Amino acid sequence: IKGHLKPFKIIHIIGTNGKGSTGRFLAQILSQNGAKVGHYTSPHIFKFNERFWLNGEVASDEILEAAHERLQALLSDEYKIKTSYFEYMTLLSAVLFEGCDYFVCEAGMGGVLDATNVFEKELSIFTPIGFDHTAILGNSLEEISRTKFEAMSKRTILNDEMNEISVAIAKEIASEKGATLSFPREILTKENLNEIANYADKFNLPE
Fold it and tell me: I need a labelling partner for 135 at 20 to 30 A (CA). Which of 98, 154, 191, 193 fits?
């Protein structure tokens, strides 16, 4: 379906914890700065629509139905049968967010083999990595980290609290891929950090 959609800049968010909140904060910041933004997240809690945030609000039933009908027209009969639930939702988000300036895309599980990794990324953001989906991703932090970091793009940001094992693997893979690796502490100013701390305190956000 790639050739049928208008291009957008994709920011890929991968990790074990904090993907959803990181993605939503980023989408809100971009939106408040005048950009058209779509945020694809999972899972939903109360309603399926929660997975798709478009220009400041959760996508309506009508908008989703229109995207679904267009996607059905683009897919072959074979793909309609073979795509998994998450794969289909990922393709649906691409159709839904066509025309956006930015597409904040949250990986569902892992990284390199995740359905969301099919897109070309402008930026990769990695939240803290821990033990998740061990039956598929591996039984060690090294294995889990590697399958996530293999999805990194040429520009990558790692969470400041990333464990040392994961950081070492990230640096190794970044070297192999010729990727630029950064940390928020290298990018944000003291004023930025104070603003973030004040915001978190004002709204009583969890650590």
Answer: 154
